[in-house]
Design a protein that fits this description.
single chain; 283 residues; alpha+beta; Aminopeptidase; 13-stranded mixed β-sheet; 8 helices; 13 strands
């Protein structure tokens, strides 16, 4: 297949439904209302590959600023795989990153291929499933995130993410079908959590906290609003032993794993505060 057979173009918002649907088909269980937040973060960061006007693949390369970008949604429809389309799509996205350090959460089986493209392994993220069986209450010192100054939230987020993501967070925290809580210690923000409605059940992300005790209070507060017997998903960095203790305490079941990788240096983030990854698609 020649390069001229494939047309790659930047998606408009209306096209993102294709991208979200393909993620669902792959079993990635996207949020029902993720598309608006994703698109607002970087309207130039989503690409579709077309053959004869029909979409056959997609990828995202979302630039948060001039220093950091995140790659996701790398999907080629099954009948078009092994034909070189994926590499053309991949190269198109990478070219748009400029000099950014690029992060990704890739399926572990593709880790070697990502290394060939200049990505270096940092650690594994693991997705856990939990079925709510018990009633919980909103814990002491936990508040609706709407009551907390946004700049304080943004500053805390910067401890756990490589760069400021103001546009993303403004939308993510107010996403339809989501709830967001923060916890304070000595009048200072000590963590926050978001839980959102997905194709299947609910996902928690992010879950950031100064300690496992605060993370658990945020976790319980978030799921307190979810009906019993609903499935809840939490993605943790396996190199945070306290996050591992949290999922073990609630007897969560591991269902998926990714390799977090970067093209540049491993960002200086406080991994010990990350009890739940925000999203595998945008970091």
């Amino acid at each position: 297949m020649s390069d001229t057979d494939l047309q790659i173009r930047t998606m408009k918002r209306i096209n993102l439904n294709f991208l979200i649907d393909q993620a669902a088909n792959e079993g990635w269980n996207p949020g029902l209302h993720d598309a608006d937040t994703f698109y607002q973060t970087d309207p130039e960061g989503f690409f579709v590959a077309e053959l004869e006007g029909k979409p056959v693949g997609c990828i995202s390369l979302v630039k948060y600023d001039i220093s950091f970008a995140f790659l996701g949604f790398f999907i080629v429809l099954a009948k078009y795989r092994e034909k070189g389309l994926g590499m053309q799509l991949w190269n198109h996205a990478i070219k748009n990153a400029g000099n950014c350090n690029i992060g990704l959460d890739g399926v572990v089986a593709q880790q070697e291929n990502y290394q060939k493209s200049g990505f270096k392994f940092a650690y594994n993220n693991r997705r856990y499933e939990f079925e709510k069986q018990t009633d919980y209450k909103i814990s002491n010192h936990v508040f609706s995130l709407e009551e907390i100054d946004f700049e304080e939230i943004l500053n805390y987020d910067l401890k756990c993410f490589p760069t400021r993501r103001r546009t993303f967070l403004k939308s993510w925290l107010r996403q339809t079908g989501s709830l967001a809580f923060g916890i304070k210690e000595n009048a200072k923000l000590a963590g926050f959590v978001v839980i959102r409605l997905c194709r299947v059940g609910y996902k928690i992300g992010p879950l950031f906290a100064d300690s496992i005790e605060q993370a658990e209070k945020l976790f319980q507060s978030a799921i307190s609003q979810i009906p019993k017997r609903e499935k809840i998903y939490l993605d943790i960095p396996e190199i945070n032993p306290e996050a591992v203790k949290l999922v073990q305490k609630y007897k969560m079941r591991k269902v998926f794993e990714t390799a977090r990788m970067y093209t540049g240096d491993f960002p200086k983030i406080e991994i010990n505060k990350i009890f739940g990854v925000t999203t595998f698609e945008l970091g």
